[in-house]
Amino acid sequence: MSTYKAPLDDLRFALFDVLGAEAHCAKLGFADVNRELADAVLEEAARFAETVLAPLNKIGDEIGCNFDKATGDVTPPPGFKQAFDTFVEGGWTGLTNAPEHGGQGMPALLGGVLTELVDSANLAWGNFPMLSHGAVKALETYGEAWQQDVFLKPLVSGQWTGTMCLTEPHCGTDLGLLKTRAEPQADGTYAVTGTKIFITAGEHDLVPNIIHLVLAKLPDAPAGAKGISLFVVPKFKVARDGSVGARNAVRCGAIEHKMGIHGSATCVMNFDGAEGYLLGEPHKGLQAMFVMMNSARLGVGVQGLGLSERAYQNALRYARERLQSRSLTGPKCPDKPADPLIVQPDVRRMLLSQKSLVEGGRLLSLHAYSLLDVAEHASDPAERERAHTLVSFLTPISKACLTEWSIENTYNALQCFGGHGYIHEHGMEQYARDARITTLYEGTTGIQALDLIGRKTAATQGAGLKLFLGEVEAFAKQHEGDAALAEFIAPLRSKCQEWGKLTIDTLTRAASNPDELGAASTDYLFYSGYVVLAYWWARSVAAANATSKPQAFKDAKRDTARFYFARMLPRTLAHKAAIEAGASPLMALPDAGFGAE
User: Fold this and answer.
1) By C-alpha distance, which of 241, 246, 242 is closest to 275?
2) What are the DSSP E strand ranges found in 97-227?
3) Which of 203, 309, 442, 516 is catalytic?
4) Which long-range contacts (CB under 8 A, 24 or more apart) does 439-443 make?
5) Looking at residue 64, what is its pLDDT?
6) Which three-class secondary structure state does DSSP give residue 435?
7) What digits encode the pLDDT tens for the residues 535-581?
8) Which of 161, 149, 139, 173 is nearest to 100 (CA)?
9) Is residue 108 within 8 Å of residue 25, measured between CB atoms?
10) Is the predicted pLDDT of residue 446 greater than 80, yes or no?
């Protein structure tokens, strides 16, 4: 049986000791968000995750969502609606939203913590409220005043939920190929017609209305991605005065039969002249959609982190309890028939791999959320712009690495269980299945890699990378004379110098052959991720040395950091070699050389 306990000690360490959450909040104007309040939020969120959501995780996987072909209705697994009602009653849906829209005005940093706790406890359930946040941001940024008045408060309060409708059966990432059309109507609305697939929480009975944000093309739209507009299309029609009318011409045509996240409703949505409103300017829908997508990408990264945390907890518990063979250096528990698995070096390798990626990944994720706070609330425009550039650079790293590492972490957790991990009873195979989707939706790992090396590095002359390397160097200079950190500072500095040179060399080759960007992209992404985590492990040791936590906690941070630098950071060597190999080994083989069709 899988269990879950919120990792409050490490969350508090990450927030207060490493990231300085109290000073962060005070500087940005969150005057009421002190240590006491933040602790209260953590405690209540942990209680909800552990006692309400976690018990429903297995139920959601076993029962899944029910689709009624006759009506198009979708019913989530038993207990999901009651849990959602409790979530709404607790005010969690509006935790980080603006008070003028009914939110609590908390920092995004605390929102990131809530997301991890929810996703560790029940990832499939967490998908139902997830996209509402992005819909709110899109409406805040691009909505007309009346649209904000009508749609924001119900979305923030959890009375309604939101979706993001991009993908169509014939096109995935290449949105320029989409066929959904929006015809202007005499009353100022638009009739939206088309089919969207893979729509998370596209239909359900948790709330009375669902607000779909739909990409479509106007009749006069130019070809390609530059001709895409964004529309607000409610499940039930909503007038400009906020009154809710008849059922709109939008219906779920099917739900996908998936490898994992069975409790999440992944829908095919059919729009048949559905009434909608233009959001933002005509033909500029991608700008508004990316507001949603960037929010969702950080959120999906946390999904990977959440699954990793829960898998690690259960693997650690099993490794301590399961008696199996003897230690290679002699019995450690001579009074028992065998030693626990945790004495075995290879089991420890798997556990430390998980621990180092989870605790380091937590800091990567929360740092990104803290940058969102700075980008929105800092008084200095230059500081806001700096934070925006840096979080844009870190978003594809956070999304892709945390989700890809969740594949590794759930695999290692399952391996710790041996054959017992493969059977349903212990819950480990569910995490391995659930983790797979996190690398795919909101942009596959390959898309994130191209975004990082192309849009976020080549197109900006490395603006985000320079900012991050500057932050690392400032930390290194601050601790130059600290003998306790010397073993981490020197290799970290060396890797950052190598990262900069590797970037320049790759972009130089790409100037004469664009395939070089695509060929290097995935290895460049992982190289970046491992160096970023090295920085956070060095920061963790520095923070642990300064904290008042017990010596055992401090020692564990240092020992885990040493493991990371010795056994995980060297993975960059393979990625560097692959990047330097260039595009030729990938592109030389003719298409026919792959084999018969």
Assistant:
1) 246
2) 160-165, 181-184, 190-200, 209-217
3) 442
4) 439/304, 439/400, 439/403, 439/404, 439/406, 439/407, 441/198, 441/200, 441/300, 442/293, 442/296, 442/297, 442/300, 442/399, 443/173, 443/293, 443/297, 443/396, 443/399
5) 98
6) helix
7) 999 999 999 999 999 999 999 999 999 999 999 999 999 999 999 99
8) 149
9) no
10) yes
Count CB neighbours of 100 within 10 A.
Answer: 11
Residue 160: what residue type? Answer: W
Please enumerate in sequence order all residues whose Cβ is within 8 A of that of 47, keeping only pairs 6 or more positions apart, or say none.
none
DSSP string, 471-505: HHHHHHHHTTT-GGGHHHHHHHHHHHHHHHHHHHH
Tokens representing 240?
A: 């400009």
Distance CA 211, CA 132 (A): 9
C-alpha 489/C-alpha 494 separation (Å) is 9
Question: What values do phi and psi take at 210, rounded to 5?
Answer: -125, 130
| CA proximity to 538, closest of 473, 485, 494 | 485
Q: What contacts 24+ positions apart, CB below 8 Å, involve 240-244?
A: 240/146, 240/150, 241/150, 242/149, 242/150, 244/208, 244/209
pLDDT tens-digit profile of 108-152?
999 999 999 999 999 999 999 999 999 999 999 999 999 999 999
CA pair distance 98, 109, nearest whole angstrom: 14
- Whether the CA torsion 146, 150, 155, 160 is positive or negative: it is negative
Would you call 145 exposed, middle or buried from its count of C-beta atoms within 10 A (0-12, 13-18, 19+)? Answer: exposed
Q: How crowded is residue 339: how many other Cβ atoms within 10 Å of its Cβ?
A: 20
How far from 131 is each of 135, 232, 245, 489, CA to CA, in Å? Answer: 6, 14, 23, 39
Q: What token pair was written down for 292? A: 């949603």
CA atoms of 321 and 4, how far apart (whole Å): 16
According to DSSP, residue 76 is labeled P
**Structure tokens given for 158:** 């959890």
CA-CA distances (angstroms) from residue 268 to 169, 251, 433, 496? 9, 8, 21, 45
Q: Is the pLDDT of residue 1 over 90?
A: no
Report the alpha-carbon distance of residue 278 to residue 261 in Å, rounded.
32
Write out the two tokens for 416.
Answer: 């710790």
Q: What is the mean pLDDT of the chain?
A: 96
525 closest CA partner among 443, 437, 411: 443
Q: What is the DSSP letter of 421?
A: H
Residue matched to tokens 């999440």:
264
Has 442 been annotated as catalytic?
Answer: yes
CB within 8 Å of 142: residues ≥ 6 apart: 230, 279, 280, 287, 288, 291
